[in-house]
Amino acid sequence: MGQANAARDKLYDLRQCNLAGKDASGFDLSGVIMTGTDVSKAKFVDTQFSKAYLHESNFDGADFSNGVIDRASFKGSTLRGAVFVNAVLTGTSFEGANVENADFSDSYIGDFDVKSLCRNPTLKGENPTTGMETRASVGCRN
Fold first, then answer.
1. How does pLDDT run across 1-42, given as a tens digit for each residue?
2. Sheet harboring 68-70: ordered strands across?
3. What is the pLDDT of residue 5?
4. pTM of model > 0.85
5. What is the CB neighbour count within 10 angstroms for residue 78?
6. Where are the alpha helices (DSSP H) in 70-138?
7. Which helix (H) or strand (E) holds 116?
8. In the prediction, which pLDDT does 44 show?
9. Are 65 and 83 in contact (CB under 8 A)?
10. How much is the CA Rg of the chain, to the nearest whole Å?
């Protein structure tokens, strides 16, 4: 129950770290703090981010496929070309985030979260890895 609430005995403080290109697949990073962190082209396949603080960081080209991103905030981060294929995104905020060319294909995104994401002006383009059109991958109606 503690992990579901992002409670643990160690704090994952990854502020201002350079983790570009690293592989964190399968890890539980619940409660992680990433501010000013470079995780561009990192692999987060099957990774869990619950109550994660992911502000002002570089996630360009990161792969979150099959991950669970629950109640996380990507405020002010850049996620250009990120892949969220088959991910669960519940209660997650992309406010002020750059999601250009990201792919959300086959992801579960709550109705309220879809509406908010579809209002993001950077939700455009085509993912360079998967070839999927970004707005269509979210399921935006326009």
1. 344 555 556 678 999 999 999 999 999 999 999 999 999 999
2. 48-50, 68-70, 88-90, 108-109
3. 52
4. yes
5. 18
6. 111-118, 134-138
7. helix 111-118
8. 98
9. yes
10. 14
